[in-house]
Write a structure and sequence with these properties.
Blueprint (H helix, E strand, L loop, with lengths): L20 H4 L4 H11 L4 E12 L9 E10 L5 E9 L7 E7 L2 E7 L6 E4 L25 E11 L2 E10 L9 E6 L6 E7 L6 E10 L5 E2 L4 E8 L4 E12 L18 H10 L7
Parallel strand pairs: 12-14
Antiparallel strand pairs: 1-2, 1-14, 2-3, 3-4, 4-5, 5-6, 7-8, 8-9, 9-10, 10-11, 11-13, 13-14
């Protein structure tokens, strides 16, 4: 499904920001989150990612590592499409999650090869992705039109003073979280930490830490952090997304992002994507 006559456009173009920390102090919650959204705005990205979930006492040799392709593209209507396709281990090969976001509306589909057809994930997007600590809704990019934002007093994350934003879903039934606290770097506007709160709102139930933006250890370019570490504060389990390789602005076939076509994505299609990201033989 790769269109070789085009350049791959599924990437995120980083925009340099000249604002200093004292300028960020003048921005309110919605303005800060719009700045963050700008750091994630790209035409397309193709990323080769490792996912592992474990408990702190789990021996390293017992940790199962999954490999996946994360394919994102900006559509012509201001929305975006996001496909996650599992590669290994064998028992999850072909499992896919497709997200279509347009005009603030989000449609998400889960495809299990054994079932033969995709199933739409309902409102609230309950459940976790492949037994990890990432909920299905955690896989969706921040869509400012779906949230109400309020700036809170600055606080420290990863040893740095960050702007803190309270994010509440504009539709209560659209999220399994009552609210989140998002910690943004006041200069780069990149996420450093997110705390997730349930309905009682007393203590966070999960915490996401993001590390190493623009890391030289990633093969290629990405707007993602190299590491996204989600800790379930109730169970003590930890899930880590690690970007291994990434390419920006490659052209991708629109059919990749159509729910009805998920069962038709072939091994040849996947191999073509692996060639583009130079990951043949890496999975």
């Amino acid at each position: 499904m790769i269109k070789p006559s085009f350049k791959l456009s599924l990437a995120f173009i980083l925009s340099p920001f000249a604002l200093q920390a004292n300028d960020a102090s003048k921005l309110d919650g919605p303005q800060l989150m719009n700045r963050y959204a700008e750091t994630q705005t790209v035409d397309a990205e193709l990323a080769f990612i490792e996912l592992k979930t474990f408990e702190t006492e789990t021996p390293t040799e017992n940790i199962i590592k999954k490999r996946l392709l994360a394919v994102t593209r900006k559509d012509g209507n201001g929305g975006y499409d996001y496909l996650i396709r599992l590669l290994v281990p064998k028992d999850v090969e072909g499992v896919s999650v497709l997200t279509n976001v347009n005009n603030g509306n989000t449609d998400q589909y889960l495809y299990l090869p054994a079932q033969g057809k995709p199933v739409q994930i309902g409102t609230g997007m309950s459940g976790n992705f492949l037994g990890s600590d990432f909920a299905y809704e955690d896989l969706i990019r921040e869509t400012p039109s779906n949230y109400n934002y309020e700036r809170l007093p600055d606080a420290v994350a990863q040893g740095e003073v960050c702007a803190v934003i309270l994010a509440k879903p504009s539709e209560v039934e659209g999220s399994q979280y009552a609210y989140r606290k998002i910690y943004l770097d006041p200069i780069s506007f990149e996420v450093r930490k997110i705390e997730f709160f349930s309905e009682d709102g007393s203590d966070p139930v999960k915490e996401l830490q993001a590390y190493e933006y623009r890391s030289p250890n990633v093969d290629g370019s990405t707007v993602r952090p190299r590491f996204a570490v989600m800790t379930n504060l109730e169970t003590g389990t930890i899930s880590v997304f690690k970007v291994l390789k990434s390419r920006l602005n490659l052209p991708l076939d629109e059919a990749l992002f159509t729910s009805d076509n998920l069962p038709n994505i072939s091994e040849s299609d996947i191999n073509g994507l692996l060639v583009e990201v130079d990951a043949v033989g890496s999975h």
